[in-house]
Amino acid sequence: MSGLFSAVWSHLSILPVLLPAFTGMALLLLGDAPSGHGQARLKWARRLSLSSAALGLWIAVSLMGEASTGALQVYRLGEWPAPFGIVLVVDRLSALMLVLTQLVALPVLWYASGGWDAHGRYFHAIFHFQLMGLCGAFVTGDIFNLFVFFEILLIASYVLMVHGQGKGRFQAGVHYVVLNLLASALFLIGVSLLYAVTGTLNLADLALRVTQLSGMEAVMARSAALILLVVFGFKAALLPLSLWLPGTYAAATAPVAALFAIMTKVGVYAILRVHGVIFGDTAGEVARVAEPWLLPLAMGTSVLGALGALASRTLPRLVAWLTVASVGTILAALGLFTPAAWSAAFYYLVHSTLVVAGLFLLVELVAAQRGDVAEALAPASPVAQPVLLGLMLLLAAASVAGLPPLPGFLGKVMLLKAAWSTPMQSWVWTVVLGVGFLSLLALARAGSLLFWNVRPDLPAASSGASPRLVIPTLILCLMGVVMSIFAAPLQRYTDATATQLLDRQGYARAVLGVDPATGEVPVSVRPYRMPEPAAQTNPSREAQP
Amino acid sequence: MTVSLEFLVASGVGWVTACGIYLMLRGRTFPVVLGLSLLGYAVNVFIFAMGRLWWNAPALVGQERMADPLPQALVLTAIVIGFATTGFIVEMALRSRHESGTDHVDGASASGEERA
């Protein structure tokens, strides 16, 4: 028994990918009755799906426990040595993102089991495939593999997006799919350009080899990096590419939109890995390629998100615009390129994902109690549970807007402190504080309209939400409170995460291994060199390491 | 005058990409899907070319001269994924046409519209 346990433990790094994959397949095999309510199969699907998500959370927390010691867990698939084989790497950042994914997924699944999962087919199976793509993207140590996991999570998200069906969802869905396919094409162009100049796809190896680039090769690498910034910026909803998000998220069903709260963070994560670490400070001629673009665009995204929130006429659109605003704040912190700002970004990222997911669920609970007006921001009959829902909205809104003592406030204070005495200080302070104020205004307007500007002459539309829907929403909202209670250990973790990311040599040693003779990372040689006239007459491949 | 292989491949990729983008900017779902497919083909050839263009060189070991096998493997993955996503968008476009009664991407009504 202990042998089995240790065998599982040694493969722990790949379990966040395998568990949802096998759960998804099992759920497909289990089948799905077309008209699901109360059927035995649906019950079993829910049990299987929820227990798998709980197990996934446990695995993620175990990985975080391992990672918090500072050790990098490198998993070589098929024992092929890096950089030739595919590696999975779990460092502090990956572990944090895994835990966050599972923390969002479990309550959202629970909420969806309250009825939404019966509005279409194979909800649970697709949900787990989406989790597989998300977890895979967070653990992979190979940029092409990142593309593959992006595609897995996107294909699952295309299906989840139209879950529940209807004209509006299909129309928004077509836009979403076409735009994402275009982004995938750009992703491939960027990745293959990067391969053409460096001859590797391994993230650790890339970080070493981009430092050697010069001349024309550096120009090619810059364009590859900026193409990738477009792709990841599209996923993260960076300014000129953020207009798809509100319509899409508002059209999706509430639990799906809540899960999608983590999808923008995949873009943020990829920007950090590629533009923060590979094209970071030490990258020689291509150092900080994204710097002139990232910070201004991120601050613009924040402002656009806040203005969009003010202009929203429905509740889901309001929350979707707040998602855009929060992504802008996170990316602005990344754009400062200092460890302290990155630490603030991680703290704020965790908080904003949880609270936005909670808000997506909460606004649906509120809308369900408002009769025909539903999610539109217009006076309606009073909701059945004004105290409960009102307090939850107050908690979430105060946190999103950044009021003390909630974590939104702590994250913003960390960011403002990190921006202190940088050249961009006045811009960052103005934008972060201004956006906080505008978000507060938008939420206060929505809250007073929902709970105070009511029309008591209308009959009550609902007798109240079922506890099966309220409890998961409450859990997501309360996680914010937990985050501010445990702010000190969390900040220690995020500080260590930022420091670990900047230690490119340590990452390379762990992934690529150390030459026993010299005690250093073996220097690998790029297979092609561009300005080499001899190669045209007698093309011969240089020796691989 | 001889035209180099590199020039032919590069201009071919450029031409197909241009056609793909033109089609993607159309208003109906069918040209958009065609545009996406064309763009996918262009990207596949582009990846292949990023392993450099080798002539008369095998992709596996044993020779002094050999082509880079990795982009060829990447192209296979990209083709498979592209095929699946194209199949999905076709089905999605059909469903959208069925639900909204028009094949315009923004759902504009069929009457009085003159977009291609």
Characteristics:
heterodimer, A: 545 residues, mainly alpha, 70% helix, 1% strand, globular, B: 116 residues, 0% strand, disordered C terminus
How would you summarize what this structure contains?
With 545 residues, chain A is mainly α.
Write the layout of secondary structure elements.
The complex is a heterodimer of chains A (545) and B (116).
Chain A: H1 2-10, H2 15-30, H3 40-67, E1 73-76, E2 87-90, H4 92-112, H5 123-139, H6 143-161, H7 167-198, H8 203-209, H9 215-236, H10 244-251, H11 254-260, H12 263-278, H13 291-311, H14 315-335, H15 339-368, H16 386-401, H17 407-419, H18 425-451, H19 467-485, H20 487-502, H21 504-512, H22 533-537
Antiparallel strand pairs in A: 1-2
Helix pairs in contact in A: 2-3, 2-5, 3-4, 4-5, 4-11, 4-15, 4-19, 5-6, 6-7, 7-9, 7-10, 8-12, 8-21, 9-12, 10-14, 11-15, 12-14, 13-14, 13-18, 14-15, 14-18, 15-16, 15-17, 15-19, 15-20, 16-18, 16-19
Chain B: H1 5-24, H2 29-49, H3 69-100
Helix pairs in contact in B: 1-2, 2-3
